[in-house]
């Protein structure tokens, strides 16, 4: 099972969010707290902040949302000039306190904190190799394997240790690393998961999974961290090293479809604009006759606006989202599961009754939520419901940091389109084509990982028995 909201949604689950700051003279713990707040959509299971003060690395982390984990006193005790933070949704390792990040440890070079977004595809092999030579593991995360490798290679310098680690690591990793004195950031050579760099007014640097976190703390976006790059920030300023030569770029395309916040700038693309163009492309591919275009909020909103703009069909908010139900809401009992969707989304009867409706969403994974939403619309007297999706069918699992279902649970992998349409009781079901999706990115169409749609994995993936979030349990 994934996050606490699995009962109402069948979306792919978020990965994690990382944040790092080097800013002597500023309240780095509080700025990290605000940065993590901006990245909360990327993970809701646990949160943590580690701070370096020149002599020590101090840590506070726990299960829960950012405002639940940190109280005023917690932040007051985290004094220093550099910090890293993490919000987690588990992709390798169960949801438990021992797996919360950042991980802080002592090794030959001193104290170190590490926070990781991504998923290693060769973690089972690396962990077995390390265990055979005496390494011990407290958690069941692939991030602890990275920690052990750094400790193993850290006999000379930390940068040398990271360079050696990058040779061993396969898969997706965007890292922020903290020493007692310095901040480092690392991105894998395929750049699967996002990571960007910014500057603070008056001095200092920030790295974060998304630019929305830079905006929140008042930082100026500078650039994305390059594939294979290592960034070191210390008292002398910023240094950049090419840790590994860039390989085939493979930015996760689902960041643009669903995961990222719409106001983020990511690897050269504004997420909101990309989503609107996906909706426009949907309208070009499927000219459905209807009276209204409505989104499934919030992830379908930008695409729905794009569909309405291109088709000329009026856009309306037909589903109202209850924004006060968080990820920790008490789950309904089994006999009230169908009520769960209504707790999150409620149709506006006056807008919908008697209308032919195009409902735009970003994806369809298991189909459970869509069928309930369509039933709700029909209860309101909607004449027709056409579901338009701003992504192709998800037919393969992700091994690079998204907790997609096993392939046998993916509805598009098991059923043909017409059978899915009947199961969810839609009058029409339309997926954006893979060609249409990639056309949105123009000349950079080949810079993305589309393995969940095509099965074309940029990095070799593990055998099924060695995959899955509980593979190291």
Automatic annotation (TrEMBL):
Gene symbol of the encoding locus: purF
HAMAP family: PurF
Classification via Pfam families: GATase_6, Pribosyltran
Chain positions recorded as Mg(2+) binding sites: 299, 361-362
EC number annotated for this UniProt entry: 2.4.2.14
Family indicated by similarity: In the C-terminal section; belongs to the purine/pyrimidine phosphoribosyltransferase family.
Annotated protein name in UniProt: Amidophosphoribosyltransferase
Catalysed reactions listed for this entry: 5-phospho-beta-D-ribosylamine + L-glutamate + diphosphate = 5-phospho-alpha-D-ribose 1-diphosphate + L-glutamine + H2O
Keyword Ribosomal protein assigned: no
NCBIfam families attached to this UniProt entry: purF
Biological or metabolic pathway of the protein: Purine metabolism; IMP biosynthesis via de novo pathway; N(1)-(5-phospho-D-ribosyl)glycinamide from 5-phospho-alpha-D-ribose 1-diphosphate: step 1/2
Organism: Desulfofundulus luciae
Keyword Transmembrane helix attributed: no
Glutamine amidotransferase type-2 domain mapped to chain residues: 16-236
Active site residues of this protein: 16 (nucleophile)
Annotated residues for binding of [4Fe-4S] cluster: 252, 398, 449, 452
InterPro entries: GATase_2_dom (IPR017932), Ntn_hydrolases_N (IPR029055), PRTase-like (IPR029057), PRTase_dom (IPR000836), PurF (IPR005854), PurF_N (IPR035584)
Keywords recorded for this protein, A-Z: 4Fe-4S, Glutamine amidotransferase, Glycosyltransferase, Iron, Iron-sulfur, Magnesium, Metal-binding, Purine biosynthesis, Transferase
Cofactor, how bound (note): Binds 1 [4Fe-4S] cluster per subunit.
């Amino acid at each position: 099972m994934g996050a606490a909201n699995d009962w109402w949604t069948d979306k792919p689950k978020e990965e994690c969010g990382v944040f790092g700051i080097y800013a002597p003279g500023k309240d780095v713990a509080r700025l990290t707290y605000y940065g993590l707040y901006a990245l909360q959509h990327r993970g809701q299971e646990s949160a943590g902040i580690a701070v370096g003060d020149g002599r020590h690395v101090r840590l506070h982390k726990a299960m829960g949302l950012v405002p639940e984990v940190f109280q005023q006193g917690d932040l007051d005790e985290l004094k220093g000039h550099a910090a890293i933070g993490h919000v987690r949704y588990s992709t390798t390792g169960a949801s438990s306190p021992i797996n919360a990040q950042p991980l802080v440890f002592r090794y030959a070079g001193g104290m170190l904190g590490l926070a990781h977004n991504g998923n290693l595809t060769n973690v089972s092999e690396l962990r077995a190799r390390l265990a055979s030579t005496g390494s011990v593991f407290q958690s069941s995360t692939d991030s602890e394997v990275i920690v052990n490798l750094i400790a193993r290679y850290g006999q000379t310098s930390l940068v040398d240790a990271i360079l050696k680690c990058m040779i061993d690591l396969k898969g997706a990793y965007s890292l922020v690393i903290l020493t007692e004195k310095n901040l480092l950031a690392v991105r894998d050579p395929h750049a699967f998961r996002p990571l960007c760099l910014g500057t603070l007014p008056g001095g200092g640097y920030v790295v974060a999974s998304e630019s929305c976190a830079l905006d929140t703390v008042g930082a100026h976006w500078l650039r994305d961290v390059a594939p294979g790059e290592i960034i070191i920030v210390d008292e002398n300023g910023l240094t950049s090293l090419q840790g590994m030569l860039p390989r085939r770029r493979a930015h996760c395309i689902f960041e643009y479809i669903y995961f990222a916040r719409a106001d983020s700038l990511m690897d050269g693309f504004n997420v909101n604009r990309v989503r609107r163009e996906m909706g426009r492309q949907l309208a070009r591919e499927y000219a459905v006759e209807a009276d209204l275009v409505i989104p499934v909020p919030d992830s379908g909103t930008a695409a729905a606006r794009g569909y309405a703009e291109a088709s000329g069909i009026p856009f309306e908010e037909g589903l109202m989202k209850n924004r006060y139900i968080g990820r920790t809401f008490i789950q309904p009992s089994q006999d009230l599961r169908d009520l769960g969707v209504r707790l999150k989304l409620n149709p506006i009867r006056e807008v919908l009754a008697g209308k032919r409706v195009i409902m735009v969403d970003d994806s369809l994974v298991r189909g459970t939520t869509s069928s309930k939403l369509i039933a709700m619309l029909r209860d309101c007297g909607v004449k027709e419901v056409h579901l338009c999706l701003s992504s192709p069918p998800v037919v393969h699992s992700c091994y690079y940091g998204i907790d997609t279902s096993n392939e046998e649970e993916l509805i598009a992998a098991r059923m043909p389109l017409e059978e899915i349409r009947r199961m969810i009781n839609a009058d029409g079901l339309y997926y954006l084509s893979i060609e249409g999706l990639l056309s949105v990115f123009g000349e950079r169409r080949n810079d993305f990982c589309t393995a969940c749609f095509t099965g074309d994995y940029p990095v070799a993936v593990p055998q099924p028995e060695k995959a899955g979030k509980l593979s190291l349990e």
